[in-house]
C-alpha cells in the first residue's frame, strides 16, 4: 500500500455515504432457498404463471430454454407438487453463500513487493481489492498507473489500472476491460485481476507477454459498479444494479448495462420499470457511473483508438459479439470477429475442457438496449467489442455463487483465451 495510501483512503471513504446517516437495512438471508433450473420447453410464460404465488427469486433473464429460480423454504413443498422438469443448481443457496463468504485474509505483497497468487484462492472485500491494485501497481511503477473513470452514485471512485510496455504510457491502441457491472457477478473482478497480474508479473520473463504489452495499452476497470458490489457483501448477495434512487419510486437501482447512450430508446431490450432488474433509467446515460464511463471511453477512442473491449459478466459461458439491440444486425467485421471468437473458445477449452458458446449477443442470448458493447462498437469504433459470460453454465450446479475453488481455473482458462486473442487479432 506504500505509494498510494492517499489514493486508497480516497476510495474507501465514499463521500455521499459519509454525509448521509446510513439507513439500517437487514441483510437478506437465502438460508434454505433451493435453486432450480426448470425446463420451459419454449413456454416460459406458463411456468412463470405457476410460480406467481411463490416468493421466488429469478436468476436468469432469457427463459426460452429454462428458468433458473430460487425457491424459499416455505414454498418448497408446493413447488415440488407442481412436478416440473427440474435440476438443482443450489441445494441450499444460503449455505453456498456462507461458504463463498469465507474470505481469506489478504496477505499483502511478498518480499519482492508483488502480491501472491493466494489472492486467487478466495473472494475478497472491496477494501481488499482496492489494496490489491494499489500493491500490484506499486510493484510495477514503470509499466502501470492507477486510473479512475468517474464516480459512483455513492461517491466511490470507478478505479482501474493502466498498463503499458516499451513504447511508453498511452502510445498504443487500447485493450479495455470492464468488470462487475452487475454487482453479483463476483468472478469477473477476479478474472480481470488475474489478467492484469500476469501481464505485469510475466512482462520481463515471458516473450509472448512482452509482445502483447509492447503492442497495446491496457485499461482495466475491475468494478464499474462499486456500490452494487459493496451492497452484495453488506446486504444482498444477489443484487445486480447500481444503488441509485429515483423520484417517484421506492425501488433502487438502474442497470448500468442498459443505460449507455446508444440505442437506449429502443424497446424490448430493457425495462422502464424502476423495480425491474434491467431498469434502463429515465434518460440515456443518466447514471453517474455511465457518465464517468462514457467520458473515459471517449478519451480512449479519441486517443490511440480501441482495439478490443470486453465487458466481463457471469454466468452462462458465452462469448457474445455485437449486437444486442437487433437480432439481425451484424458488425461490419462480423466474419473476422466470429473467427476470432471461435479461436478463443477453442483455446479456453484446452485448459479444463470448459465449453464457451459464441455468437451475436441478441440472437445467441437475448436482446439488450443501451448496452456497452453496442456503444463501443458503433460510437467508439472499437475493432472488437465483446461480452464474455464466465462460468458456470448453470447446468452443472451453481450460478452467480461460483465456488472459490473455481476462481483460479476460471482465470487460467480466460488468460489462455486472451493470450490467443491478443496475439492473433
Ligand atoms: Zn451481467
Automatic annotation (TrEMBL):
Residue span, Peptidase M14 domain: 122-425
GO cellular component entries: extracellular region
Cofactor(s) this protein requires: Zn(2+)
SMART domains recorded: Zn_pept
Signal peptide feature range: 1-18
Gene3D superfamilies: Zn peptidases
Pfam families listed in its UniProt record: Peptidase_M14
GO molecular function, one term: metallocarboxypeptidase activity
Primary site of residence: secreted
Top-level taxon in the UniProt lineage: Eukaryota
Keywords: Hydrolase, Metal-binding, Metalloprotease, Protease, Secreted, Signal, Virulence, Zinc, Zymogen
Family to which the UniProt record says this protein belongs: Belongs to the peptidase M14 family.
Function in brief: Extracellular metalloprotease that contributes to pathogenicity.
The name this protein goes by in its record: Peptidase M14 domain-containing protein
Amino acid at each position: 500500500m506504500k505509494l498510494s495510501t492517499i489514493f486508497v483512503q480516497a476510495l474507501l471513504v465514499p463521500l455521499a455515504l459519509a454525509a448521509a446517516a446510513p439507513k439500517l437495512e437487514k441483510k437478506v438471508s437465502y438460508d434454505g432457498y433451493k435453486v432450480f433450473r426448470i425446463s420451459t420447453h419454449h413456454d416460459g410464460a406458463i411456468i412463470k404463471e405457476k410460480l406467481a404465488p411463490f416468493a421466488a427469486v429469478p436468476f436468469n433473464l432469457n427463459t426460452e430454454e429454462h428458468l433458473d429460480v430460487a425457491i424459499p423454504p416455505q414454498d418448497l413443498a408446493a413447488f415440488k407438487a407442481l412436478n416440473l422438469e427440474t435440476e438443482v443448481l443450489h441445494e441450499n443457496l444460503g449455505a453456498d453463500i456462507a461458504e463463498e463468504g469465507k474470505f481469506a485474509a489478504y496477505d499483502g505483497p511478498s518480499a519482492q513487493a508483488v502480491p501472491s497468487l493466494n489472492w486467487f484462492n478466495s473472494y475478497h472485500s472491496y477494501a481488499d481489492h482496492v489494496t490489491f491494485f494499489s500493491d500490484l501497481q506499486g510493484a510495477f511503477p514503470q509499466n502501470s498507473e492507477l486510473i479512475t473513470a468517474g464516480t459512483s452514485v455513492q461517491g466511490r471512485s470507478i478505479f482501474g489500472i493502466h498498463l503499458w510496455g516499451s513504447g511508453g504510457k498511452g502510445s498504443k491502441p487500447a485493450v479495455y476491460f470492464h468488470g462487475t457491472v452487475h454487482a453479483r457477478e463476483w468472478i469477473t473482478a477476479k478474472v480481470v485481476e488475474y489478467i492484469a497480474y500476469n501481464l505485469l508479473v510475466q512482462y520481463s520473463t515471458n516473450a509472448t507477454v512482452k509482445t502483447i504489452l509492447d503492442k497495446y495499452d491496457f485499461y482495466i476497470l475491475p468494478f464499474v459498479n462499486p456500490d452494487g458490489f459493496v451492497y452484495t457483501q453488506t446486504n444482498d448477495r444477489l443484487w445486480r444494479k447500481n444503488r441509485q434512487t429515483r423520484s417517484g419510486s421506492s425501488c433502487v437501482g438502474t442497470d448500468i448495462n442498459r443505460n449507455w447512450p446508444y440505442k437506449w430508446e429502443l424497446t424490448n431490450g430493457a425495462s422502464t420499470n424502476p423495480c425491474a432488474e434491467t431498469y434502463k433509467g429515465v434518460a440515456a446515460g443518466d447514471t453517474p457511473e455511465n457518465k464517468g464511463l462514457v467520458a473515459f471511453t471517449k478519451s480512449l477512442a479519441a486517443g490511440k483508438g480501441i482495439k478490443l473491449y470486453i465487458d466481463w459478466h457471469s454466468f452462462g459461458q458465452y462469448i457474445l459479439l455485437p449486437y444486442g439491440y437487433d437480432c439481425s444486425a451484424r458488425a461490419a467485421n462480423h466474419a473476422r470477429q466470429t473467427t476470432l471468437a471461435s479461436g478463443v473458445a477453442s483455446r479456453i477449452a484446452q485448459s479444463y475442457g470448459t465449453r464457451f458458446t459464441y455468437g451475436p449477443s441478441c440472437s445467441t442470448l437475448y436482446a439488450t438496449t443501451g448496452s456497452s458493447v453496442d456503444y463501443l462498437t458503433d460510437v467508439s469504433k472499437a475493432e472488437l467489442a465483446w461480452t464474455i459470460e464466465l462460468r458456470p453454465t448453470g447446468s452443472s450446479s451453481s450460478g452467480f455463487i461460483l465456488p472459490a475453488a473455481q476462481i483460479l481455473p476460471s482465470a487460467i482458462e480466460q488468460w489462455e483465451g486472451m493470450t490467443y486473442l491478443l496475439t492473433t487479432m
